[in-house]
Design brief:
CATH class: Alpha Beta
CATH superfamily: Vaccinia Virus protein VP39
Strand order of the largest sheet: 6-5-4-7-8-11-10
Shape: globular
Order of helices and strands: EEEHHHEHEEEHEHEHEEH
Helix content: 25-40%
Distance between the termini: 36 Å
CATH topology: Rossmann fold
Strand content: 15-25%
CATH architecture: 3-Layer(aba) Sandwich
Number of strands: 11
Radius of gyration: 18 Å
Number of helices: 8
Largest sheet: 7 strands, mixed
Number of domains: 1
């Protein structure tokens, strides 16, 4: 079969709901067949992001927002070497992470979220934006993208990457939470799910470099279910070395909630170093 990401010949990894997924040695990805990718780009939806989809996803979105999502935000803040004035949650869904951040960092108003297909029951947070990255009227310094990239075809991901480059200041860093091939193979084979959850690609490292590096990003391997990209980087240190003297540590210290978010970010980064 043909790899749905890079077009190279791939071996069949698995078949889910009659959809073949290839294992590509060229780009390292696990992806639904290239013919299916082309159909999706042509307008065919394997999974519509409609009311029924969001009804099944809202509980999981809230759980992530008030748990792992906070840890990912705190890590991204500590990894970012430039001063952060605007932090963006890319593809933020209902925007519950904005609500969680408002609860745990009430003194901070620099967190924003952007969602192209918002569910009816989304946050009323003042910094929630409906649309894409290209619709933002500000530049970004840091952010997260949680459980989004696995839904996108290479063409869609390419638009996201180019839009992100256009909205990034030098040194901006973004942490992407997505199941990579090692995670799928060793930890969660059920992560690939074309019809139920709309997961069509598990991105290999080579594919990510091909996607982001021509646009000026450096790709950092973080763990089996996350990676980071840094735009026009000026800091050569590994991510794990940045948490000890981050210029943005004060962002995670709140006069009401104290040092909780700072400690969550630092200890989470240390656990997975």
């Amino acid at each position: 079969m043909q790899c749905g990401v890079c077009g190279a010949e791939a071996s069949v990894f698995t078949v889910i709901d009659q959809f073949e997924y290839g294992d590509c040695t060229a780009c390292g990805s696990l992806a639904v067949d290239a013919r299916v990718i082309a159909e999706i780009d042509g307008g065919k939806a394997l999974r519509s992001y409609d009311t029924d989809y969001w009804r099944s996803e809202l509980a999981a979105a809230r759980e992530r927002a008030y748990g792992a999502g906070l840890a990912r935000v705190a890590e991204a803040v500590l990894y970012t070497s430039r001063p952060i004035e605007k932090f963006i949650d890319i593809g933020c869904g209902p925007g519950y992470l904005l609500d969680a951040l408002a609860a745990y960092l009430p003194a901070r108003s620099l967190f924003y979220g952007v969602e192209r297909f918002p569910p009816p029951d989304h946050t009323r947070h003042q910094n929630y934006r409906v649309g894409g990255l290209s619709d933002l009227d500000f530049m970004c310094d840091s952010g997260v993208c949680i459980e989004v990239l696995e839904h996108l075809t290479p063409r869609m991901a390419g638009h996201l990457a180019s839009d992100l480059a256009a909205r990034s200041r030098p040194g901006a860093l973004y942490l992407f939470n997505t199941g990579m091939p090692q995670f799928v193979k060793s930890e969660d084979p059920g992560y690939l799910d074309p019809v139920g959850r709309g997961h069509i690609v598990s991105w290999g490292e080579a594919a990510l470099r091909n996607l982001f590096e021509p646009l000026g990003f450096r790709v950092h391997r973080a763990r089996s279910w996350a990676f980071a990209v840094e735009f026009q980087p000026f800091d050569d240190r590994a991510l794990a070395d940045r948490i000890w003297n981050s210029p943005n540590a004060s962002m995670l210290r709140d006069p009401v909630m104290g040092d909780l978010m700072f400690l969550v970010g630092r200890e989470s980064a240390r656990v997975y170093a």
